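Morning - copper (II) ion inputs below, output right after.
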Amino acid sequence: MSETVARKVEPSSSHPAPRRRRHLGIAALGAVVALAPVLFLSGLLGGGAVSVQAGSSYLPQTRTYFLGADEVVWNYAPAGVNQITGQPFDADAAVFVEPGPQRIGSSYLKSLYREYTDASFGTLKPRSDADQHLGMLGPVIRGVVGDTIKVVFRNNLDRPASVHTHGVFYKKSSEGAPYDDGTAPTDKADDAVPPGGTHTYTYGVPERAGPGPMDGSSVMWMYHSHTNEVADDYAGLVGPMVITKAGAARPDGTPRDVDREFFLQFKVSDENQSPYLARNIADFAGDPASVNPQDPEFGESNLMHSINGYVYGNQPLDTVTMRKGERVRWYLMGMGTEVDLHTPHWHGNTVTALGMRTDVVNLLPASMMVADMVPDDAGTWLFHCHVNDHITAGMLTRYRVLPR
Ligand SMILES: [Cu+2]
């Protein structure tokens, strides 16, 4: 299939044509097993001695998450209007969100990670108010340096999938990625969990998975399916992970010196490369038989310039609300391909990131960025990718700072 997609009718001055537009776009905390109060854990998962902050009284735990990969119909624009302008979608926006005879519109079948209450995978764990902003992302998986994290993964999809994490310590049986690594078949059950299958991934959290010398009290990692990595990403199988310094965490693993955490993924979600493209055409286009998947205008309409799966400010504002003076930590991540160069910009307030004061940070595919904000300016503020083309295509949201 051609991956070359030309932009729909745009002045050549601003969009020289032809252009390559791959614009794509846990209590579960179940089993919490307190081990002995240790300052040093030896042989964690075979990873050798792990220092757990001399002087800390932190009791390392095993945190267990029940993670399903589910088929979900996701609407990138649930409000049905452009919530940045406060107006109905204009012609530029309609390309991406309005259904039509040869348009899928704003709803697509996706594969999403969702959290369940237990190993029966019969009951979804309700998302807390604090997690409502996650949108399309999987649940936040948390650990503290010294912990062990277990992810019990159930594949409810019709194709193989996996869980591959960044940052934490894993053996080959928990890497979640198939390639010729010379390992035995017993170490490959994690690579591609079959439809209906279950696999338990085990991760150590040594010091090298936690905050480094220049970090704050917590760092971000990500997890995603790595069985068919590109298609799995465009299907939507991605989520955030946070590791907090021992001695700096609340019992639930959140950093004590932070009042609110937000996790936002900037991605041009290319629905043309989703494994569900044919089904999405059949289910959502007005006249499926007339759709030509190679048509550049059709291709363009499926490039969803989204933040957590929302376009044109459709992320509910209530879910990204904080108070003046609170200690707010933003965890941002990129994903995707060469069009996924994003520069998230906060209006109204500043952050510190990488030790510097700024109000714009940089994201590339699979970048992870932590930015701390103590908002001093109340109001409803724009938060958007500063890449011009991405602004036009809807990669914008809002955040709200209430008075103290
Ligand atoms: Cu961008």
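Note: The radius of gyration is 21 Å.

O.
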